[in-house]
Specification:
alpha/beta; MutS, DNA mismatch repair protein, Chain A, domain 3; Rossmann fold; 4-stranded antiparallel beta sheet; 14 strands; elongated
Length: about 475
């Protein structure tokens, strides 16, 4: 959908709806998709998107918990795995495994409910379980991201020897430490590590009384950290075994990275499909919060809103305590295929501006795949273009008064609008001489009607009310005020 002016999404409130969906999204990729989301003009795409949202809302409210979780962003991992001989870290494999588990469970969940949710079933065809890779990763990496002892028989042997040597080292160090403490050469703080080697803290004046190698000195200089000669050989063996352990772990991880590389395209497809589910679920959750329904997409340009509530006011209420929420007054509005323009009049603070913002926002939401906060009999056409003038575009930088900016907007709208456009004008003829402004906007609206544009206008000007009464394609509407 083409929008004018450029800040229309902010002006009409679509960014607030987008933010609510972003908050509901579970993944970074889902948030990115929602951030770039814009209303579609393809009727089939819109209908499918709305069906997906409707099915997901039904699923989330009435079915067992949907297993859409652990949606890690795999893009960097898959990029790092692309080169032959590359090696991913254990944490990366954990995230890949989690995504594979989610893909498998989501597919199974939807398959069991495919008759109830046919559109979601179509989305789930993009999920390809890779149980073999999932099991290979699980066999190597545990839930904490550590490589398991039995990842290979060689690693198991190395770690068994390492554990034995570390036990021998502790016994040897503790024996030397006990002798040193008994002779008042060391404090009782216990052995520690320096440079990866186990040492004992010895008072500096006794460092030559105990055979060994000094690895560090305390900041005060009164304590030295000494590796006893009895522990030297054991420490050396441990370092050698640690080197062998590292080599074996790298070999295992490179082999597992090869497996991931071979399934890169499948993993990318799974991530794209899970992202699609995430976006659908985020839209559905916004609709659930707003108590929304899926509108009918009309092919005869009928615009009918049955008790529509402004989505922004609805989202605002959700942030307030139940006792402080405000009543949102529903809007009833209809324009059939023969009616081109609706002129809305009424008192200040009567809700005229909210009414046309509600229409514009419901149109944008529906064409973006959101349910709208209106009764399910509501109908909306598909618009290719949306033009909105709220009469508040004064610009010091561009030396434009409010009325000058409106003239600029009118010029662009007249040039671009066509039979698939919706034009919303708030407070027509305000900001200038009432008589001249009324005549100008009347001629502007007449020109739009000739181009078969749908127009909604709010105004206080009597000349526009009379015009609406006299023109067969234009109808008057009013807001009641309590």
């Amino acid at each position: 959908m083409k929008l004018y002016p450029e800040n229309l999404t902010q002006k009409i409130g679509f960014e607030t709806v987008r933010q609510a969906a972003l908050s509901a999204a579970r993944s970074q990729t889902g948030r990115e998709k929602l951030q770039s989301l814009s209303p579609s003009t393809q009727i089939n795409k819109v209908r499918i998107g709305l069906k997906q949202t409707g099915e997901m809302a039904d699923l989330l409210q009435n079915e067992a918990a949907f297993p859409l979780y652990q949606l890690h962003d795999l893009r960097e991992h898959l990029k790092n795995a692309k080169a032959k001989g590359s090696m991913l870290a254990p944490d990366a494999f954990n995230e890949i495994s989690n995504v594979l588990v989610t893909a498998r469970r989501v597919k199974s969940y939807i398959n069991k409910r495919k008759k109830q949710f046919p559109e979601l079933k179509k989305v789930s065809t993009g999920l390809i379980p890779v149980r073999e890779l999932e099991e290979k990763i699980t066999a190597v990496v545990d839930e904490q991201g550590s490589i398991r002892d039995n990842a290979s028989s060689k690693l198991k042997q190395i770690r068994a020897r390492l554990n034995k040597k570390r036990g021998d080292l502790r016994k040897t160090i503790n024996r030397v430490m006990k002798r040193a403490v008994k002779k008042d050469m060391a404090s009782g703080e216990g052995p520690t590590l320096r440079g990866g080697r186990m040492v004992i803290p010895v008072q500096a004046e006794y460092k030559r009384k105990i055979k060994g190698f000094v690895h560090d000195v305390s900041s005060s200089g009164q304590t030295v950290y000494l590796e006893p000669v009895e522990a030297l050989e054991i420490n050396n063996e441990i370092r050698q075994l640690e080197g062998r352990e590292k080599q074996e772990m790298e070999r295992i991880l490179r082999g597992l990275t090869d497996e991931v590389r071979g399934k890169r395209k499948t993993l990318q497809q799974n991530q794209r499909t899970l992202t699609a589910f995430d976006v659908i679920a985020a839209k559905a959750e916004v609709g659930i919060k707003l108590e929304g329904f899926i509108p009918v997409i009309s092919e005869d340009k009928r615009l009918f809103l049955n008790e529509a509530r402004n989505p922004i006011l609805g989202l605002k209420n959700l942030k307030l305590a139940s006792g402080k929420q405000e009543t949102v007054v529903p809007l009833n509005l209809e324009l059939d295929e023969k009616e081109a323009c609706l002129v809305i009049t009424g008192p200040n603070a009567g809700g005229k501006s909210v009414a046309i913002k509600t229409v514009g926002l419901c149109v944008m939401m529906a064409q973006s795949g959101f349910a709208i906060p209106a009764k399910d009999s509501s109908e909306l056409p598909i618009y290719d273009k949306l033009f909105v003038d709220m009469g508040d575009e004064q610009s010091i930088e561009n030396d434009l008064s409010t009325f000058s900016s409106r003239l600029k907007w009118m010029k662009e709208t007249q040039k671009r609008a066509d039979e698939n456009s919706l034009v919303l004008i708030d407070e027509a003829a305000a900001g200038t001489d009432p008589e001249e402004g009324g005549a100008l906007f009347q001629s502007f609206i007449e020109m739009l009607i000739q181009k078969e544009v749908k127009v909604l206008v709010t105004t206080h000007q009597g000349v526009l009310k009379i015009f609406a009464h006299d023109n067969p394609q234009t109808v008057n509407g009013s807001m009641e005020f309590d």
